Amino acid sequence: ETGVTQTPRHLVMGMTNKKSLKCEQHLGHNAMYWYKQSAKKPLELMFVYNFKEQTENNSVPSRFSPECPNSSHLFLHLHTLQPEDSALYLCASSQFSGQGVEPQHFGDGTRLSIL
Amino acid sequence: TQLLEQSPQFLSIQEGENLTVYCNSSSVFSSLQWYRQEPGEGPVLLVTVVTGGEVKKLKRLTFQFGDARKDSSLHITAAQTGDTGLYLCAGLFHGGSEKLVFGKGTKLTVNP
Lengths: 115, 112
What we know:
The structure holds 2 protein chains of 2 kinds. Chain A is mainly beta. Helices cover 0% and strands 56% of the residues of chain A.
């Protein structure tokens, strides 16, 4: 039990489908993140939310749309994805203090496959 | 673009052996974290180092932060099969943005 829960764990979708990934944290943290993990690449930060406000969009294509309705929940809405978007999508949370040493707590990820 | 280089990329050893993995950059870190990721799970934080020259120990794992804060190493003594996983370093660069930059990781396999 990591305190960060992601659903679904696996998702297969066609390029024309619309789906959403969900992340919930039970740690009382004020910052949440979406990362993309592909084979042979470093973990790529996609979006950051501090106190429900988006503070980072790391040049992510508009076919990925994040939503943070409250500090405990984070969604990633997907539409018209491409085969190269197949990857493990990880959600993380932390207690942001501006010191830069806060650990990030990760969920176990959603394994996304685009047909 | 600030990059972290991790080496080796893959490492396969026998139980009981010692090993060291490295994390290097040409830029200075404000702080650096090491994570371990097991198959089917998300990364889990092992340690955070902040001060140049700092050494931290976590049971059989020894973490060292370079004096110039541009590199770090993780040494495992008497490796066990439970140490198998992907070891990731992640740094916050001095004078950079607040976001963590991750290396590609070292995939360690400890064979019985």
